[in-house]
Amino acid sequence: MIFDSDGTTTIVLQEKATLKTFIENLVNGYDKIKNDHIILNLFSFSKLSESDILEFLEISSKHRAAKKSFVLVTAAISFEDVPEQICVVPTIQEAKDIIEMEEIERDLGL
């Protein structure tokens, strides 16, 4: 698992792993990045389903409850196909933009 930190944001990726292994490694390494905004780069998974994305719901909810952003990046599934509790975007730049917007909303108390 690769953690690429940039200020208060960490991009997480892992090549050549199953989704199950990726999630296990994320859970095991979560304490290292729990105080950062998290972007999960899922481009190494060419096929993802809505149920695959729902595997991230628990950790996403926990992270967002701590007032931190949690964004999944994949073009394999549309944001329209997942519940609004999980943020899915097609590019890393859009993930960074989402984090910036959410930070502004938190600063404004929205």
Please write out the topology:
Layout: E1 2-6, E2 9-13, H1 19-33, E3 37-41, H2 50-54, H3 57-65, E4 70-73, E5 87-89, H4 92-108
Parallel strand pairs: 2-3, 3-4, 4-5
Antiparallel strand pairs: 1-2
Mean pLDDT: 91
- Following the backbone from N to C, one meets helices and strands in this order, namely EEHEHHEEH
Strand order of the largest sheet: 1-2-3-4-5
The CATH topology is given as Transcription Regulator spoIIAA
Strand content: 15-25%
Short description:
With 110 residues, the protein is α/β, with parallel strands linked by helices. The protein contains 4 helices and 5 strands, in the order ββαβααββα. It has helices at 19-33, 50-54, 57-65, 92-108, and strands spanning 2-6, 9-13, 37-41, 70-73, 87-89.
Fold and architecture overview:
The chain has helices at 19-33, 50-54, 57-65, 92-108, and strands at 2-6, 9-13, 37-41, 70-73, 87-89. It has one domain: Transcription Regulator spoIIAA (2-Layer Sandwich), CATH 3.30.750. The model has no long low-confidence stretch (mean pLDDT 91). A 5-stranded mixed beta sheet has the order 1-2-3-4-5, with helices on both faces. Helix content is 42%, strand content 20%. The N and C termini lie far apart (34 Å). The protein has 110 residues and is α/β, with parallel strands linked by helices.
